[in-house]
């Protein structure tokens, strides 16, 4: 099993414990927030194309519904574990709190490498997973969405399967295809939100975004759109990577060319003028902004002292360990945390859910305007909290403070403590 999945829950707990101790949080609220309220593990038998039966493990964790239904993506990856899904659901609760969304956290996953399945096998597995978790999801219960290796096509199969069992409830899932009630702007939202946060932060730090050098680890949904929007803002993307390795060009990589190379199955290595670079070396490149946009636990005590970026913008969930956070703080490297930086995705998911429930749909321009307004408001709240605790806190701690204030008030108002 890979190091990213095993360390995630430890990291989520360490972050929460640290902020609870800093805030002298009521121990009962701390204890409630440490554990998901509900975890489901399912075994899914699937008939493969060759007639054999294979069993897949699946999970769904709903962390906290004090403020509203659970909300969060579904991940397909061979390293998925229950603990990793728990951690990701904990982070979702705090992310929704930072953005002031009427949700708690949820997350799901299947232990599978989807690249090893045919399209028909993938569809059968997806539908069977939804049948298995159907009792615990719902428009007002827990609302899944895409995450690593899942996309609108998969959300389309999922919503169809759920509706067959439970009747029309298109808002049970977000990140759907537009024709099934998906929202304009959702596919690009995580990367767009990341670019907005980077722009706001660089402005506060007095770093000009024009020609700022950006390195991106992970060139999937979050990473590629972050690259595209940062490039549009004038930044220079000097290195990108995916699970097949990285490429580097100090003159700049055009994100559109990179997307074209991936669409044509040529790989990022085919982009003109680039040199190969390992994922490890890529993280240690000198740059203004490093955007980890792949998996958890990429920057740890083993490499934190070698990072040369001025800013780390966490497009991925949990890419920096707690020990690394401390080293980076000491070295003056600013980390803008996942629960703020990558919240554009869940924000537009919320817009999708609202549009489904109203049956009234917004243009891409309206969605993007609302997204920008929400991200900037969240950034300002976190930044002000950070400024108020300048000597004692990081941006991550400030983001937790914004979120915990809201959660604690809801938990008390509901009479749980
Ligand atoms: N899709 C979304 O809306 C959101 C995603 N995120 C987070 O962003 C991160 C990426 O998710 P997506 O872009 O959706 O997934 P994706 O499946 O679209 O892309 C993941 C990318 O990471 C690459 N990758 C995997 N292992 C790698 C490694 N060791 N080194 C370098 N690259 C590697 C893959 O090849 C792929 O390019 C995850 O942490 C996810 O939880 C966070 C918020 C929302
Ligand atoms: O769009 C959503 O509901 C959640 C996206 C997600 O899984 C995340 O923010 O990590």
Primary descriptors:
single chain, 417 residues, alpha/beta, Rossmann fold, 7-stranded mixed β-sheet, 12 strands, binds 1,4-dihydronicotinamide adenine dinucleotide, binds 2-oxoglutaric acid
Q: Can you tell me about this structure?
A:
- The protein is α/β, with parallel strands linked by helices and 417 residues long.
- Among the domains are: 36-171, Rossmann fold, CATH 3.40.50.10860; 188-341, NAD(P)-binding Rossmann-like Domain (Rossmann fold), CATH 3.40.50.720.
- It contains 14 helices and twelve strands.
- Strands 9-8-7-6-10-11-12 form a seven-stranded mixed sheet, sandwiched between helices. A five-stranded mixed sheet has the order 1-2-4-3-5.
- The structure holds 1,4-dihydronicotinamide adenine dinucleotide and 2-oxoglutaric acid.
- 1,4-dihydronicotinamide adenine dinucleotide binds next to helix 7 and strand 7.
CATH architecture label of the domain at 188-341: 3-Layer(aba) Sandwich
Oligomer: single chain
Main β-sheet, spatial strand arrangement: 9-8-7-6-10-11-12
Largest sheet: 7 strands, mixed
CATH superfamily of the domain at 188-341: NAD(P)-binding Rossmann-like Domain
Number of helices: 14
Radius of gyration: 20 Å
Assign an overall shape. globular
Ligands bound, unique: 1,4-dihydronicotinamide adenine dinucleotide, 2-oxoglutaric acid
Show unreliable segments.
Answer: none
- Percent of sequence in beta strands: 15-25%
Which structural class do you get from the secondary structure elements?
A: alpha/beta
State mean pLDDT (0 to 100 scale): 97
The topology string of helices and strands comes to HHEEEHEHEHHEHEEHEHEEHEHHHH
Beta strands, count: 12
| End-to-end gap | 38 Å
Helix content percent band: 40-55%
CATH class of the domain at 188-341: Alpha Beta
Examine the coordinates and then state which fold CATH places here, giving the name of the CATH topology of the domain at 188-341.
Answer: Rossmann fold
Catalytic activity: L-glutamate + NADP(+) + H2O = 2-oxoglutarate + NH4(+) + NADPH + H(+)
Protein name: Glutamate dehydrogenase
Site (Important for catalysis): 147
Binding site for NAD(+): 190, 221
């Amino acid at each position: 099993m890979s190091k990213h999945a095993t360390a995630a829950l430890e990291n989520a707990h360490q972050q929460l414990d640290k902020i609870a101790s800093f805030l002298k949080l009521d121990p009962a609220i701390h204890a409630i927030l440490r554990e998901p309220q509900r975890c489901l593990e399912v075994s899914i038998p699937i008939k493969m194309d060759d007639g054999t039966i294979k069993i897949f493990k699946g999970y769904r964790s709903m962390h906290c519904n004090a403020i509203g239904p659970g909300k969060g993506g579904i991940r397909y990856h061979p390293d998925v574990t229950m603990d990793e899904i728990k951690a990701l659901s904990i982070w979702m609760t705090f992310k929704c709190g930072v953005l002031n969304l009427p949700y708690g956290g949820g997350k799901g996953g299947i232990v599978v490498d989807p690249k090893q399945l045919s399209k028909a096998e993938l569809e059968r597995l997806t539908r069977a997973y939804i049948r298995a978790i159907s009792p615990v999801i719902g428009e007002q219960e827990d609302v899944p969405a895409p995450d690593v290796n899942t996309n609108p096509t998969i959300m389309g199969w999922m919503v169809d399967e759920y509706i067959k069992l439970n009747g029309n409830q298109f808002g049970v899932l977000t990140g759907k295809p537009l024709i099934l009630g998906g929202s304009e702007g959702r596919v690009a939202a995580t990367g767009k939100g990341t670019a907005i946060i980077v722009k706001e932060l660089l402005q506060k730090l007095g770093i000009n975004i024009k020609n700022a050098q950006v390195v991106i680890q992970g060139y999937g949904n979050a990473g590629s759109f972050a690259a595209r929007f940062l490039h549009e803002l004038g930044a220079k993307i000097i290195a990108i990577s995916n699970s097949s390795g990285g490429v580097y060009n100090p003159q700049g990589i055009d994100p559109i060319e990179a997307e074209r190379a991936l669409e044509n199955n040529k790989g990022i290595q085919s982009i003109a003028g680039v040199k190969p670079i390992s994922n490890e070396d890529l993280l240690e490149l000198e740059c203004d902004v490093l955007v980890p946009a792949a998996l958890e636990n990429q920057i740890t005590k083993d490499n934190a002292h070698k990072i040369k970026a001025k800013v780390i913008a966490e497009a991925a969930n949990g890419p920096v360990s707690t020990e690394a956070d401390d080293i980076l703080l000491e070295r003056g490297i600013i980390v803008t945390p996942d629960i703020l930086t990558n919240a554009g995705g869940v924000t537009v998911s919320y817009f999708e859910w609202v549009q489904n429930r109203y049956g009234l749909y917004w243009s891409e321009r309206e969605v993007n305007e609302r997204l920008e307004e929400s991200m900037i408001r969240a950034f300002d709240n976190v930044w002000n909290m950070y400024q108020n605790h300048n000597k004692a806190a990081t941006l991550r701690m400030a983001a937790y403070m914004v979120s915990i204030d809201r959660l604690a008030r809801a938990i008390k108002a509901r009479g749980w403590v």
